[in-house]
Automatic annotation (TrEMBL):
Native source organism of the sequence: Chionoecetes opilio (Atlantic snow crab)
Protein name per UniProt: Uncharacterized protein
Amino acid sequence: MRFILGCPLSTRIVNMLSELDLPPLVERIYANVTYLSVKCLHSSYLAPHFPAVIRTSLDPDAPRLPLRPGGHNLINAVCNNLRGLDITVLEEAAVPGLPPWRDPLPIVPFTPTSKDVPPLLQKQLALETIAGVYVIPRRTPHLC
């Protein structure tokens, strides 16, 4: 802000914020966390614990959760923002599966053989091993 406005070091931050029409940093943090909270409330798989904390804190009759003091302040600010916006966030109906890079690896058993075993038996053991491999089918990508 000092660089943009060309202000000396003695200029107060509050004056620069009002000159640039910017909210204080704390309000910006609370706005970002409120946005994240709405996103997590809609898609609870993003952070399974956080939406439960927010939903419980939005209910005035629910008992207070054991959080650290800073956590209480943040959750209270987020809940106040959500109440002030007067919005109802619906939970996502379908939970998407794992992304392709998080698919579990296939389970491949190994059957050791030796050169002393006849080739026909080696081939049979190899085919049995191949037939017993559990392969997870890949999802086809959705084309837009």
